[in-house]
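Intended use. Records like the one below are meant for learning the mapping from a protein sequence to its folded structure. Do not use them to infer anything beyond what is encoded.
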Amino acid sequence: MNLIESYNNAVTISSYSNAILSNFPTAHDGPSFNADYNLADDLNSI
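Structure written out for the chain above:
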C-alpha cells in the first residue's frame, strides 16, 4: 500500500468515525463527541 492509499484509507475511516460519533447524544444530553454536530444542534434549537 502506498502513501496515497494509506492517506485515503485514513480519511475514509475518519469520516465513518465522525458519522458514527454524530449519532451520540449531543451536548444537551451528555458529553460532546462531535463539536460541529453539537453546534448545528444548538443553532437549530434557537
